[in-house]
Amino acid sequence: MTTSTTPATTDDPSQSALLQAARGQRPRHTPVWFMRQAGRSLPEYRELRQGTNMLESCATPDLVTEITLQPVRRHGVDAAILFSDIVVPLKAVGVDLDIVAGVGPVVAEPFATRADLDRLPDLTPEHVPYITEAVGALVAALGPTPLIGFSGAPFTLASYLVEGGPSKNHQRTKAMMHGDPELWRALCDRLAQIAATFLQVQIDAGASMVQLFDSWVGALPRTDYLRFVEPHSRAVLESVGDQVPRIHFGVGTGELLADMAAAGADVIGVDYRLSLTDAVARTDGKYAVQGNLDPALLFAPWPVIEGRVREIVQEGRAAPGHIFNLGHGVLPDTDPTVLTRVVELVHSLG
Ligand code: 1CP
């Protein structure tokens, strides 16, 4: 019998540039990935998705695996993000909703009363076996490249349930929050349980890091954020604890950044409206940052993009760690060759 020693493996995502940056260490190069890197900007994605609707795709492990791997192969990004959607766990517990092409999530019967909570039971791992299967297959296929798991945060999920679909003003959501704070709290408690379990399923299956998307919470003033939202997001982030690094992201959240970081993040996501320099100052230099190239700038001439990428990488050096990303998701018409060039440029800057 030979004594077994742990081989020094290069196949360990915990030693990746992404994880190092999230832990506040200095990797050899700035890691880079893109929100919505899988999706309509890729012709190979459009081909694969033909004839399968979004939610069906999300529940088919072979498709999820292939779609998740496409941008990693094509762009050489430093992370994969699971191909899924924030409403997948809501659908899994039985909420009647669909993802309508060109629109987004649409809920058949929007939530308005306490009785509606009966339509939102707790999530268990048995509700989402296809997530466990897809994450397991991905971790095996990705080797040293980390897989990022994700969930929607309670506020953003509640907004879809209460508005019934995408919303600009979130008026019904705000009306419930202020008009029936108890119902709001009960709804967000359930959503926090669902979000925490959805993340835990992905962590248990091998995800190396997670991102909590509170995409639309920038619609709130700080006092409302602290009173009505932060405790629920904190519950989700604290449930992850130190199992894997946690990214917390929202759009237009410059005024909430310090609170969102302190809610239990290791990495604070920064949208394109705030410079990384300001983001570092607002979070007292205590958190790694992720961001923040404006996705619309990818349509500008290359020298403009190059200049901005260089500035962002430079600004990121003031943070304890920096993960290069866009300030929000890749726009569907983006030329994917530009994304590849951005990855090459970020890596070349060390
Ligand atoms: O038919 C299609 O191709 C549907 C388009 C699409 C895709 C590709 C939707 C509908 N969701 C997704 C995938 C998706 N959603 C990912 C994949 C992983 C990756 O990044 O590559 C992720 C992380 C999400 C998460 C998501 N869904 C968020 C948070 C991220 C963000 O962009 O802020 C949100 C807000 C949603 C809701 C949603 N799902 C789909 C759309 C078009 C929307 C937004 C609708 C709106 O404007 O409110």
UniProtKB/TrEMBL annotation:
Catalytically driven reaction(s): uroporphyrinogen III + 4 H(+) = coproporphyrinogen III + 4 CO2
Sequence positions that bind substrate: R36, Q37, A38, G39, R40, D85, Y160, S215, H328
EC number: 4.1.1.37
Annotated metabolic or biological route of this protein: Porphyrin-containing compound metabolism; protoporphyrin-IX biosynthesis; coproporphyrinogen-III from 5-aminolevulinate: step 4/4
One GO MF term attached to the UniProt entry: uroporphyrinogen decarboxylase activity
Domain spans labelled Uroporphyrinogen decarboxylase (URO-D): 31-40, 148-164
Pfam families reported for this sequence: URO-D
Location, primary (coarse class): cytoplasm
Residues of the site described as Transition state stabilizer: D85
Protein location: Cytoplasm
CDD domains recorded: URO-D (cd00717)
Superkingdom to which the source organism belongs: Bacteria
Alphabetized UniProt keyword annotations: Cytoplasm, Decarboxylase, Lyase, Porphyrin biosynthesis
Subunit structure: Homodimer.
PANTHER family, sorted: METHYLTETRAHYDROFOLATE:HOMOCYSTEINE METHYLTRANSFERASE RELATED, UROPORPHYRINOGEN DECARBOXYLASE
Functional description taken from the UniProt entry: Catalyzes the decarboxylation of four acetate groups of uroporphyrinogen-III to yield coproporphyrinogen-III.
Protein family membership: Belongs to the uroporphyrinogen decarboxylase family.
Protein name in UniProt: Uroporphyrinogen decarboxylase
Source organism: Ornithinimicrobium cryptoxanthini
Gene name of the encoded protein: hemE
